[in-house]
């Protein structure tokens, strides 16, 4: 049965619930997903708010229940009042807005006009992004969001190397390269959201999801390109449960001779569960599991597997019952609120677990585990809006990979979790300060990763390589392969013009150094941008 059939079957059930349901309020989803400019973080991480912070994007109706959303968006900035003409809307509010008794539609521009200079080679970089997003409520039950972007760009060297290796722009889809430098790419996302009853929500769309409280996520992140998904969420007091089915593509598993043809990329599917519980006013614990399988495996044309449709079942027994061990990823998320403005958080991820191998100390290759530890301070030293975050991530070799490469934990040639894949240790920290319209941001990241220097042998860092090509059964340690050190430093200052769509002007400098026994690559650049900063675009890899 194809995934399209699954979509329509469940959509019929959703419409039936919609028809027979009682009164409710439309569950608007936040489009503020950029961690540097998200206006809601400080509020949702307050003791006693009972907010499920590890499920992102956030729901606006839940935020509105604990604070005034407009006040958070215009924090320190005078909110516009009265009738606004076209030019005032560009700089102060929604560009276009239509509000009636049962309908509300808002339209805003998206853009990123950036110029830079990579000083080592006097390379001129630039980005030219234009787009639009439309969101709104229709009646009491229905919310929708859609956007589209058209882009052309010249990237710095390390970023350009990634695009040619992976065939995609990080997080933004496939590129149509024009020569060795200029790239042309586009993307669109969108979803519809139903809440047929107060505690239940259904989303159907194409986009990204994030599970966790950190800057990175070892469970599910917004690192890769958008993907089609169907998501059910239920929330009752301190409990939030999510089940999601997704469709993913693999650009590597294609015949190079066919790249010029109009063809579909190989397909795989995922099914994910996430249960999170708030304990008291400060603790939160979440459990996650996800399974990935190829639409066409070694046994033939498999397509969507109905065995994974049950939203209340553990996946490991299911995969064995159908005679095809798929790629299972399991993990946990934990959070503790310290005082009024501090957060401790962490994650644990696991791909395989054999207790005798884990505790033997022999470093078996399939000990696929990783963890995250971090902290956030929203009012550091008692200074309002002075934010500090420090985070450590570590993932063992071969985590997220699989013996069938198409079944790895990835989408569109990028990792669905951490952008460094596996076989790494990383520390990342941020210092940010906001005063009215001014934003100051400083980031430092240092990592050590074991890179794979051959397509024939996998040392566990590249999750797109076959597990079975490993050189050793035991003695596998983080950093094996080509040990590579990475440092990344970015500082910028920006001025917020319109907080409705995060329209800002920014000036910054970036430093990156990647070194190993084979080569050293340095990037030193300055940049200037006029942009709308709504979504995360990761450059620190």
UniProtKB/TrEMBL annotation:
Record's keyword terms, sorted: Signal
Lineage, opening ranks: Bacteria, Pseudomonadati, Bacteroidota, Bacteroidia, Marinilabiliales
Signal sequence interval, chain numbering: 1-26
InterPro entries: Wzi_sf (IPR038636)
Name of the protein in its database record: Gliding motility protein RemB
């Amino acid at each position: 049965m194809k995934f399209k059939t699954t979509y329509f079957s469940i959509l019929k059930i959703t419409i039936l619930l919609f028809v027979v349901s009682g009164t409710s309020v439309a569950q608007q989803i936040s489009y503020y997903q950029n961690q540097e400019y998200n206006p809601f973080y400080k509020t949702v991480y307050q003791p006693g708010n009972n907010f499920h912070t590890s499920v992102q994007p956030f729901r606006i109706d839940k935020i509105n229940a604990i604070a005034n959303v407009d006040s958070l968006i215009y924090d320190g900035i005078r909110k516009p009042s009265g009738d606004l003409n076209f030019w005032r809307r560009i700089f102060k509010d929604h560009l276009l807005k239509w509000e009636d008794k049962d309908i509300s539609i808002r339209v805003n521009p998206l853009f990123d006009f950036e110029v830079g200079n990579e000083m080592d080679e006097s390379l001129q970089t630039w980005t030219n992004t234009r787009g639009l997003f439309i969101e709104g409520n229709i009646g009491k039950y229905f919310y929708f969001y859609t956007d589209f972007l058209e882009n052309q760009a010249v990237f710095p060297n390390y970023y350009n190397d990634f695009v040619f290796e992976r065939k995609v722009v990080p997080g933004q889809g496939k590129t149509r390269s024009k020569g060795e430098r200029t790239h042309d790419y586009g993307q669109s996302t969108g979803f519809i959201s139903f809440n047929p009853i107060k505690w239940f929500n259904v989303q159907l769309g194409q986009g990204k999801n994030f599970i966790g409280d950190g800057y990175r996520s070892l469970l599910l992140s917004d690192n890769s390109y958008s993907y089609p998904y169907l998501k059910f969420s239920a929330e009752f007091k301190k409990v939030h449960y999510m089940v999601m089915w997704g469709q993913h593509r693999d650009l590597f598993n294609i015949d190079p001779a066919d790249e010029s043809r109009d063809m579909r990329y190989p397909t795989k599917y995922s099914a994910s569960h996430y249960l999170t519980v708030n304990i008291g006013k400060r603790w939160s614990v979440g459990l996650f599991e996800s399974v990935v399988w190829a639409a066409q495996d070694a046994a033939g044309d498999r397509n969507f597997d109905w065995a994974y449709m049950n939203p209340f079942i553990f996946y490991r027994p299911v995969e064995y019952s159908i005679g095809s061990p798929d790629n299972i990823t399991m993990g946990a998320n934990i959070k503790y609120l310290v005082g009024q403005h501090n957060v401790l958080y962490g994650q644990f991820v696991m791909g395989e677990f054999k207790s005798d191998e884990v505790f033997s100390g022999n470093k078996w290759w399939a000990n696929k585990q990783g963890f995250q530890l971090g902290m956030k301070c929203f009012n550091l030293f008692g200074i309002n809006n002075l934010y500090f975050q420090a985070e450590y991530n570590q993932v063992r070799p071969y985590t997220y990979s699989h013996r069938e490469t198409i079944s790895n934990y990835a989408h569109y040639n990028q990792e669905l979790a951490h952008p460094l894949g596996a076989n790494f240790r990383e520390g990342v920290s941020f210092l940010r300060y906001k005063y009215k319209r001014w934003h100051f941001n400083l980031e430092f990241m240092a990592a050590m990763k074991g890179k794979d220097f051959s397509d024939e042998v996998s040392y566990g860092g590249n999750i797109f390589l076959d597990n079975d090509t490993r050189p050793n059964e035991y003695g596998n340690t983080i950093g094996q392969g080509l040990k590579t050190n990475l440092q990344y430093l970015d500082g910028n200052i920006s001025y917020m013009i319109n907080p409705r769509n995060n329209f800002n002007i920014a000036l910054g400098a970036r430093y990156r150094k990647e070194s190993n026994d084979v080569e050293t690559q340095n990037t030193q650049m300055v940049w200037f941008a006029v942009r709308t900063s709504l979504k995360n675009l990761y450059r620190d890899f």
